[in-house]
Write a structure and sequence with these properties.
Two copies of one chain form a homodimer.
Chain A lengths: L2 H9 L1 H12 L11 H18 L2 E6 L6 E6 L7 E7 L19 E3 L2 E3 L7 H18 L5 E7 L9 H7 L1 H4 L3 E4 L11 E6 L1 E10 L5 E2 L10 H10 L22 H9 L4 H8 L12 H7 L4 E8 L8 E2 L2 E10 L5 H15 L5 E10 L2 E2 L5 H14 L4 E5 L5 H9 L3 E3 L15 E3 H20 L3
Helix pairs in contact in A: 1-4, 1-14, 2-4, 4-14, 5-13, 12-14
């Protein structure tokens, strides 16, 4: 690689950090209507920055929700085209009182950058913008053709991105997609992730009476929706952690022996993992290790519960209503729509007639998996080794990037998951953070990646 | 009875209503710290009113919580002494937006008085003050000795009243206690209630991790406290509505054949009852009728649930904590302390080691039952027939008046439950109300009661 590019990356670190801090300062919380204007402002800031970086055709493109930001550089005829995907929206920050420093004021402590969006995904997407900038500013060219697409609705399930991609297939045509929106296996252990879980999210609402009832006068005569909800939820998983929804496991791709062997070889410290979470004990599906449970097995989780009197003290009511937020993580080859149908049928079956039931589908995303011997995956492995001076390990991830499945389906392009976060990054929680060695190393690896990808065709 | 007393009662109705309206206007919500001054002001108003009524030795007596108001008239040597008990505190009013008229502005619609405290218990206790007033103002005397004790903490479980009674045993010595704090069986069907349920109230708190966790990254590896809570609650009752806590039914006095027969004869319209509640179906313990379930069988109820994300939309978290408010209604001869011990032991048994468990005892009250052939109960039956021109039916009640058990234990006095509410009175809910025929009829019956009680000794 041109030494000027490397030199530029190694000498621009404090500028990169300043710019990222300004990007983070825009509270682009996609889930909250009161941040809609901030989210749009963030898209505008990003478009200006992408133009400054040297990308062309930069546009903020409206969707029915938050806009997509697009830019490209397509002046390398015959070279592969790489589509870089990321998202500029972030999760809500509550509970705010648990943040050590304000969520939208990026703060460095012990070489880690603390802020909402530091790792998920502002910091990670920024890596690629800076690597593109280093090439373009120092050499005026790239060894590949590049397209960048940054969305503003990933944290609410990307409701408009699938349609956007279908509507812009020609403009998004590419040979490979590169996504940085996942953690490394361990701090300082660069990783390529070859599988992601999908998601199916629901809300259940039960009603047992018109108003809350006096538990003395009416206790015993009517079904208690809070208790009925508990009974229904308890029927969703057995003692061994197996989901009891009929047909739930029908399409689950079992782990191969090779995968189980590789997972076992990873430097995973279960005791430290448990301690970091503050969990009294680890607990999961019988017959699987912790890594297997979080990476390659589907789950059923209750994300929220609300019913009746929840203030201080005691109030003797039978609640009129009870609500649960519920989601399932899915693995290849489960389909979120099929799972949603199975779930709804089962919920209806286990709901007694003594309560009124309403099930709402919130959002879903397909699981995804690619081949380890894919030439682009191998190119990424070489670039990572050059950028971090260490060969990557291969992992799967428990989280969801639903769009990855869409890239496969709509653009017929494989995705390389080039994760730069850490397992303790607190994504979606207070005190989200990004390791700065990963940030700077990632920029170098991304700069090498373009040449390694260029080599795949030749 | 002296015709002047009867005449006074029949001609003072609008004054009674005006006075009750002023009593109700003081928002004596004992559960809410912001109403502590109002609750004390209400005690002061009541003391002034009791003095005006002709009672003697009237005092506002401090407790560690809200004060007790006491007054007496003890100038009938040799006659029985009747202790009138009631409470001047009321339940919170939330949800406020469901009230048709403001909760502390008593409003008459269709001969019913709507207000917080209209029936529970300001309106009902006021009945006896007005009957005492009618005798004292027209005859200057009473056929009985009277003591009146009105507390300000009934709606928060009377935490200080037991001690108060133990500390003032001599001053409270009596032959019988009269309490009006329960509904009639049906509007216009005067009733004497001979049994009440007790209560045992708890809060359960579970913790599974230090903070909320990303359900993708960690889903499958740790116990979900919201799901664990559901599993634990589901183990508290079986499909037939039987409580599964070992030993829970050991001390339950089974219904006698006579009781079951009498309950069957009551004019109970199950279809209308269900419709009034807005319940899709009635549901309860197998083998018992609705009246048996609510009057004579113990219950297990979830009063509140809170965990994780409960706002609009979706958030993919594994909650760090989950909370449930739980209460059990108890019947003779269950003991709240013994039940609390059984419950705590069972909760600990069913809680997995993957979560930290905290159980908090909130409050409890003993169940109670008296004999139908008690001479004071029979005196009350005659007074009711005179006041309402209809013989009373005998019922039990699902709610709790914990103090009734204390009167039996500490003062060795039976209690007559002289209920004047209606089953649809909305106690503890929006639009609480009192039937005005019950209010006026109750004053007349109470006035007759003193002579009927006087006859029991002689």
């Amino acid at each position: 690689m041109n030494p000027a590019v490397v030199d530029s990356i190694l000498t621009s670190r404090s500028r990169y950090l300043d710019e990222l801090t300004r990007f983070i300062a825009i509270p682009s919380v996609s889930a909250l209507p009161e941040h809609a204007a901030d989210t749009r402002a963030c898209a505008g800031w990003l478009a200006d920055h992408m133009t400054a970086v040297g990308l062309q055709n930069v546009r903020v493109i409206d969707t029915p929700g938050h806009p997509v930001v697009y830019g490209d550089w397509l002046n390398a005829p015959g070279a592969p085209t790489v589509l870089f995907y990321g998202h500029y929206d972030v999760q809500p920050v509550d509970p705010l009182d648990q943040w050590v420093s304000p969520p939208f004021e990026a703060t460095v402590r012990d070489n880690e950058l603390f802020a909402r969006g530091a790792t998920d995904d502002k910091g990670q997407l920024f890596v690629h913008l800076k690597a593109l900038e280093a090439h373009l500013s120092k050499t005026g060219t790239l060894p590949i053709n590049a397209r960048v697409i940054l969305e503003g609705e990933e944290e609410i399930g990307s409701p408009n991105l699938d349609q956007f991609i279908r509507d812009h297939k020609a403009e998004l045509a590419c040979d490979v997609v590169v996504v940085s929106d996942s953690p490394m296996f361990e701090k300082g252990v660069p990783s390529i992730c070859y599988g992601l879980r999908g998601l199916s999210y629901f809300q259940i609402d039960l009603r047992g009476s018109t108003t809350d009832l006096h538990s003395g006068s009416f206790g015993g005569a009517v079904a208690n929706p809070a208790f009925v909800l508990a009974q229904m939820l308890a029927q969703m998983k057995d003692r061994g952690g197996h989901v009891k929804i009929p047909g739930f496991y029908d399409d689950v791709r079992e782990l191969t022996e090779r995968e189980r062997e590789e997972f076992k070889r990873l430097p995973f410290n279960e005791k430290q993992y448990r301690k970091n979470l503050g969990a009294p004990r680890l607990h999961g599906e019988t017959g699987y290790s912790t890594l297997e449970r979080t990476w390659a097995r589907p789950t059923f989780e209750v994300n929220g519960l609300l019913s009746g009197f929840t203030g201080e003290g005691s109030k003797t009511v039978i609640p009129a209503t009870a609500m649960a937020k519920i989601s399932m993580r899915l693995v290849p080859d489960q389909d979120p729509d099929k799972i949603a149908g199975l779930f709804e049928a089962y919920v209806k079956k286990v709901a007694p007639k003594s309560v009124d039931l309403k099930v709402t589908r919130m959002h879903g995303g397909k699981p995804w998996m690619t081949g380890l011997d894919n030439p682009y995956v191998q190119a990424a492995a070489r670039a990572i080794e050059l950028g971090f001076n260490r060969a990557p390990v291969y992992t799967r991830e428990g989280g969801s990037i639903p769009i990855v499945a869409t890239f496969q389906t709509e653009l017929n392009a494989p995705t390389v998951l080039f994760g730069l976060g850490t397992p303790d990054e607190n994504a979606h929680a207070p005190n989200e953070k990004l390791d700065l060695d990963h940030f700077y190393g990632g920029i170098l690896a991304s700069a090498y990646l373009y040449e390694e990808i260029a080599k795949t065709r030749g």
